[in-house]
Amino acid sequence: MRLGAVLFSSLFVLALVLLVPGPVGAPEVEPGPIDPISALDAQRLITATTVRVVGFGNSALHSGSGVACSDGTTITNRHVVEGSAAITVAPHEGPVAFGPVELSAQADVAVVRTQLRTGQSVRLADHDPVGGEAVTIAGYPVALEVSRAKVVDYVAGRYRDERATVMRVSLSPQPGMSGGPVFDARGRLAGIVYASEEQSGYGLVIPASRLRVALNGSGGLAGVDCL
User: Fold this and answer.
1) Is the pLDDT of residue 14 over 90?
2) Does the reported pTM lie above 0.90?
3) How far apart are CA 50 and CA 39, in angstroms?
4) Signed CA dihedral, 173, 174, 179, 180: sign only
5) What is the pLDDT of residues 142-163, one digit of tens each?
């Protein structure tokens, strides 16, 4: 626990509950109707792209979750992999992949470069979901788990050196959910889980707008096939 937040670096999951939305201060809002992804396509996307991320080093093991892009790059949290001597990425099906890690200096974001090919394309959402919008969160507490929640609101980042605006969702993440993907109704990557707000129990998510800054080169990371 740190500054009222519980950070998770062990595996990743989400079970979400519908709540009445609070005030919204999202940096980006997408207008117009939503054309949702089908249940079957969502299942395929989540199963193929949600991965377990494990870091080894200094007699310690840190495990969390991540989302694998089609080029073999896995997006996760910096605090899951920072300081590890070796990183493994394990998909739901198929062999474990290995690769070097790159850390963002501006956000709690990291990428692991591997040869993993999921057969599914992940696209970063063009806009952050608004308060009350449904999202789907997946991860590996032990086995792959998938849950639905709603966006509560957006607040100033206060935990784990994440200073930018972050999304709150109506679920308290379990240990191991750090780095796990949050998908919107279209099946776009709306963010990644990075902490839990201890007082409220809400999950904290680095939203798509923040990920885009971290991954487009200006945030220290580049060459990610999810933008």
Assistant:
1) no
2) no
3) 16
4) negative
5) 899 999 999 999 998 777 667 7
Q: How far is C-alpha 118 from the chain's CA centre?
A: 17
Q: Is residue 136 within 8 Å of 183, Cβ to Cβ?
A: yes
CB 145 within 8 A of CB 160: no
User: Which CATH number belongs to the domain containing residue 69 in this structure?
Assistant: 2.40.10.120
Count of domains for the chain = 1
Helix, coil or strand: residue 165 = strand
Q: How many CA atoms lie less than 13 Å away from 167 in the CB half-sphere?
A: 36
What's the longest Cα–Cα distance across the chain? 51
What range defines the domain where residue 68 resides?
1-24+35-220
Query: Could you report the per-residue pLDDT of 194-217, keeping only the tens digit for each?
Result: 999 888 999 999 999 999 998 886
- Return the DSSP state at 82: T
